[in-house]
């Protein structure tokens, strides 16, 4: 996929470190503004996974970093940072292409994340997410 020329806003790295190192937010949503720059659209300090899912726009693409906490079968608590590339089937093709070709630009800034490509709600369903997270080690 050709790079889109979209750049990453400088503050995005600080926001990411706040969630990665400080666990300051439950999740962050990033949006491509004006087809030129990836910016933090919003952050949520407290949210259940279900609440978060309800905020995904049904017809628009987004990138999300979610601080996912879960419990293993033996009761051990774990957390993983999810990088969700949300590209619903109903989004405009141009939008999907722009987000797909810009993904590497944002991923370079986000180290240590489990990537999840989601094109519909079933792919961000918590049961599906938990399986992917466990499979990632």
TrEMBL record:
The keyword Translocase does not apply. It comes from the Eukaryota. PROSITE patterns: ADF_H (PS51263). GO terms for cellular component: actin cytoskeleton. One of its GO terms (biological process) is actin filament depolymerization. Residues 5-134 form the ADF-H domain. Pfam families: Cofilin_ADF. SUPFAM superfamilies: Actin depolymerizing proteins. Keywords: Actin-binding. The keyword Membrane does not apply. Coiled coil: none annotated. GO terms for molecular function: actin binding. InterPro entries: ADF-H, ADF-H/Gelsolin-like_dom_sf, ADF/Cofilin. Belongs to the actin-binding proteins ADF family. PANTHER family: COFILIN-RELATED (PTHR11913). This is ADF-H domain-containing protein.
């Amino acid at each position: 996929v050709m790079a889109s020329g979209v750049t990453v806003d400088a503050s995005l790295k600080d926001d990411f470190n706040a969630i990665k190192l400080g666990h300051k937010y439950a999740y962050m949503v990033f949006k491509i503004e004006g087809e030129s720059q990836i910016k933090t659209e919003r952050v949520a300090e407290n949210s259940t996974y279900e609440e978060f899912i309800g905020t995904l726009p049904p017809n628009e693409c987004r990138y999300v970093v979610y601080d996912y906490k879960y419990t293993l079968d033996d009761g051990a608590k774990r957390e993983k940072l999810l990088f969700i590339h949300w590209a619903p089937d109903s989004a405009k093709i141009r939008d999907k292409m722009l987000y797909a070709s810009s993904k590497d630009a944002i991923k370079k800034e986000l180290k240590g994340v489990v990537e999840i490509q989601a094109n519909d709600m079933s792919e961000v369903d918590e049961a599906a997410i938990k399986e992917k997270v466990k499979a990632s080690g």
